[in-house]
Amino acid sequence: MSLSYSLTQLPPLALGHSRLYLCRHGETDSNAQDLLQGSGVDAMLNVLGRSQASALGESLASICLNMVASSTLSRAIETSDIIANRQAVSVERWRDAGLSEMFYGSLEGLPIAGCRQKLKELSAAWQAGDTGVAVGGDGESPDMLLARAHAALWGDGALLNSRVPGRHVAVVAHSSFNRAVLSVATGKGLGNMFAIPQDNACVNVLDFCVNDAAISVIAINMVPSNS
Questions:
Q1: Contact 2/195 with Cβ under 8 angstroms?
Q2: Are 196 and 185 in contact (CB under 8 A)?
Q3: pTM score, two decimals?
Q4: Mind listing the pLDDT tens digit for each residue in 123-145?
Q5: I need a labelling partner for 8 at 20 to 30 A (CA). Which of 35, 45, 83, 134 fits?
Q6: In a 10 Å sphere around its CB, with 0-12 CB exposed, 13-18 middle and 19+ buried, how is residue 56 labelled?
Q7: Which CA distances in Å does 173 have to 1, 9, 16, 57, 127?
Q8: Burial level of 118, CB count in 10 A (0-12/13-18/19+)?
Q9: Are the CB atoms for 60 and 21 separated by under 8 Å?
């Protein structure tokens, strides 16, 4: 089943709500090489990543988007540009550093295989409820990431600064960023954020109530068929 078809089969948007399509960027060479790629690594999409972003854009073309937003990192900007260019009419654009990936501190850019023990210890601490522990000691903690994500997405109880219902908004962000948001929205808990799958060029669908800022998760990790 294609992603474009799946998106058209989503439940209709309820009155008083707006819909967020929270996406992950396409693949980069750092992804392909299994490097830790946080906000300190500004990698471009590779050939496969551009193909993934194109497939995501084609799928989201079935939705009349009011805004396409992204972090200020190149991989997210390029993915969001491709999505916006696939829309039938011009859409509002927005970039915000608050939507950037988790900062991995001294571990930025290192091979994941070489950091596996440190990452295992971090994961254990987070799952035990100590989500204030920062990556590498000098990076961000899940608590810091979540606070930044919430401020960027729905600070002051507004979805990207808008309390107007009926909007459809695409945001291109990053794997750990998305996981932090989804872990709380689904009730799984921030310490279990890395149990949530986030493939390159995936889209997660969340409905936002403009009256009380309540979040409903509609779909997680939907991926274009040729990604």
A1: no
A2: no
A3: 0.96
A4: 999 999 999 999 989 999 999 99
A5: 45
A6: buried
A7: 25, 24, 25, 14, 23
A8: middle
A9: yes
